[in-house]
Structure to design on (284 residues):
């Protein structure tokens, strides 16, 4: 993978987006095991109901991992300086997530040419699940 | 309400090994198609000494203990009432399979919102590798719904 050329990038340029398969219970069980996040709210419907939810729902970090793939499909991971998100609403079973990024700023940070990406995850209904940003050194 | 005495408190550090098998399992769980995360030869060609941990894996390392949510219990927070609010990672060096990472969690702030209906806990976590290099930092914000 080669780095995009800093001088060829413009504010408003989009990075290739990514659409993931709809979330199902297997996705959540696998992610619970693989990510060490065993919070029963994501895998045990009885616990979720007792806690006031209708059903289990996705780990925020599953959605953030998907969003991270937008970055690492575009640049090598070693180019990422920062990656942050706000979890805006719960991701439910059946949600089909689209992960998107756009260049918001170009700047020099600690002597490196960097771009700041604005990142977003929306479901099939257009509801925003995550809003984030990343700083990439090029 | 969460006792504000926890602000500034550091929990005992956790040291955990980054396992290639778990990285492969994580890649499967997130339907990763980028072979740098699943094929060691591709990782090596890309300049890593072993399979790299993906950008959000530090959060998983922080839960790599049978008592991973024990600190919440200690603070009197029921797990069924928490949501992940915000998450930030800073990266200084790659984390790769075989590394031994020591994570140190410190509560940096507790904010009361909406007249006590919500509380926000901010934790800073540092990640140090076996060579005592600071490889990354995380800021974790947890929402407690009262």
């Amino acid at each position: 993978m080669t780095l995009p050329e800093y001088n060829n990038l413009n504010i408003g340029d989009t990075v290739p987006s990514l659409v993931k398969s709809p979330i199902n219970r297997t996705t959540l069980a696998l992610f619970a095991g693989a990510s060490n996040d065993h919070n029963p709210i994501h895998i045990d419907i009885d616990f979720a109901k007792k806690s006031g939810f209708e059903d289990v729902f996705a780990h925020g970090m599953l959605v953030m991992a998907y969003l991270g793939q937008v970055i690492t499909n575009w640049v090598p991971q070693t180019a990422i300086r920062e990656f942050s998100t706000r979890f805006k609403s719960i991701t439910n079973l059946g949600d089909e997530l689209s992960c998107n990024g756009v260049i918001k700023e170009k700047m020099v940070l600690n002597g490196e040419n960097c771009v700041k990406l604005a990142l977003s995850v929306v479901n099939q209904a257009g509801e925003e699940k995550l809003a984030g940003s990343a700083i990439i050194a090029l | 309400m969460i006792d504000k005495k926890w602000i500034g408190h550091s929990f005992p550090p956790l040291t955990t090994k980054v396992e290639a098998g778990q990285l492969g399992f994580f890649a499967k769980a997130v339907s990763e198609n980028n072979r740098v995360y699943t094929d060691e030869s591709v990782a090596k060609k890309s300049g890593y000494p072993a399979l790299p941990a993906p950008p959000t894996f530090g959060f998983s390392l922080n839960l790599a203990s049978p008592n991973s949510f024990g600190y919440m219990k200690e603070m009197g927070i029921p797990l069924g009432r928490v949501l992940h609010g915000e998450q930030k990672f800073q990266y200084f060096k790659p984390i790769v399979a075989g590394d031994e990472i020591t994570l140190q969690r410190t509560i940096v702030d507790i904010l009361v919102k909406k007249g006590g209906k919500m509380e926000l806990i901010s934790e800073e976590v540092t990640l140090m590798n076996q060579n005592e290099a600071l490889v990354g930092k995380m800021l974790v914000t947890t929402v407690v719904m009262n």
Notes: Chain B has one domain: 4-18+52-145. The radius of gyration of chain B is 17 Å.
